[in-house]
Amino acid sequence: MVEETDLEKLEYLDMVVKETLRLHPVAPLLLPHESMEDCTINGFHIPKKSRILINARAIGRDPNAWTDANKFLPERFVGNDIDIRGRNFQLIPFGSGRRGCPGLQLGLTVVRLVVAHLVHCFDWELPNDMLPTELDMTEEFGITIPRAKHLLAIPTYRLQLQ
Ligand code: HEM
What we know:
Helix content is 22%, strand content 11%. The chain is an alpha+beta fold. The strands form three sheets. Strands 1-4 form a two-stranded antiparallel sheet. Strands 2-3 form a two-stranded antiparallel ribbon. The chain has a two-stranded antiparallel ribbon with strand order 5-6. The protein starts with 10 loop residues before the first helix and ends in a 5-residue tail after the last strand. Protoporphyrin IX containing FE binds at residues 26-27, 30-31, 93-95, 99-103, 106-107, 111.
């Protein structure tokens, strides 16, 4: 079985999780922030006490920051250290800075461990010979952004039953 201590060696899994959160950040607009002072960003004046929404989903799909921005390509993270912890502003599914997500480590560990177990223990098939490209990936917009239609996939246990 995959253990938590194995996770640091599972580099491709890490890339898959990053790529998933790039295209499908759980909270597309993060949480609302408020400016503490007047400031100017890229020529835009932002008065003190403005409500600020950061569109992390649009940033994650920005063609100026990403090649083939709308494609799911975990390999794009090979050979670079683009990180998911708020240091690289083109990838901020946990926000950034002092009000970034304090549950980042726990969240990432649980997601990686659950996905690792699902992949290690089961072979997966889509029903009715459906191709992965035919999956309906429509999202339901809100504070979080779940799939509009549930994913239906068929697992077959692939480890030796004792
Ligand atoms: C994959 C899992 C998770 C994702 C993607 C996620 C994402 C986020 C995001 C985007 C924010 C807003 C950051 C911002 O506006 O700059 C946030 C805030 C927060 N998250 Fe998470 N989170 C996850 C798991 C967790 C867990 C496991 C906990 C607690 C055990 C947690 C607790 C919080 C709290 C308390 C805040 C508010 C922080 C503040 O306002 O100072 N999160 N999270």
